[in-house]
Design goal:
With 200 residues, the protein is α/β, with parallel strands linked by helices. The chain has helices spanning 3-19, 22-25, 57-61, 77-93, 109-116, 139-146, 186-197; strands spanning 34-42, 45-47, 54-56, 66-72, 98-104, 124-127, 157-161, 172-180. Helix 4 links the parallel strand 4 (66-72) and strand 5 (98-104). The radius of gyration is 21 Å and the shape is globular.
């Protein structure tokens, strides 16, 4: 085997390793700011991921200080980045009046269960849609349009609700809410949570 041929093989191997390197294969983060948005956010009732019993959002939020509703697709890389942050914040502040409810979108129940693993999610998970054909018709899609989110799928999409400010009855829960149209910036989200919980 000639030295030139070996050199060519070595160059090809280096080029291939650069092309398929993990850094180039990683999906970009989609961090977004926490912004107060004016829109009519409506009450909903969706089936629980684990056993299909239904969960009503107004009832779920009752008695809590702050609730994060996070819409996600189980196959979404940005949700996969955010999920550990949501779990960390939930576990840190659940005893202080903070709760999380995640809404599965555009992925099957089996996909969602696989994502959370055998231990399951640490917080409540419900299902609105299970297929990509609902991308433009889900309530999640509607809220994204109302708040100016131009992403193709919009996962994750976070809404913080203050239960004390929610309407006690009727279709509309609130006329405004704090929204993150992308991944939570952990430090900003934690500062917001602490302020709303009255923690110094």
């Amino acid at each position: 085997m000639s030295k030139n041929f070996v050199s060519i093989l070595l160059l090809c191997a280096i080029a291939l390793s650069i092309f398929v390197s993990p850094a180039s294969a990683q999906h970009a983060h989609e961090y977004a700011p926490l912004e107060e948005k004016t829109f009519a956010y409506k009450d909903w009732t969706f089936p629980r991921l684990t056993d299909s019993t239904t969960i009503n959002l107004r009832q779920f939020a009752a008695g809590k200080k702050l609730v994060l509703v996070v819409y996600y697709a189980p196959w979404c890389p940005n949700w996969q980045y955010e999920a550990p942050v949501v779990a960390k914040l939930y576990n840190k502040y659940k005893s202080k009046g903070f709760d999380v409810i995640a809404v599965n979108e555009y992925g099957t129940v089996a996909d969602a269960q696989k994502f959370f693993g055998t231990a399951g999610a640490p917080y409540t998970v419900v299902v609105e849609s299970i297929g990509g054909n609902a991308r433009d018709t889900s309530t999640h899609a509607g809220y994204r349009k109302l708040t100016g989110d131009t992403r193709k799928w919009g996962s994750p999409y976070n809404i913080f609700l203050e239960p004390a400010r929610l309407a006690p009855s009727g279709e509309v829960l609130t006329e405004s809410a704090w929204v993150v149209q992308g991944e939570l910036i952990e430090k900003d989200a934690e500062n917001f949570i602490r302020a709303r919980l009255g923690l110094k």
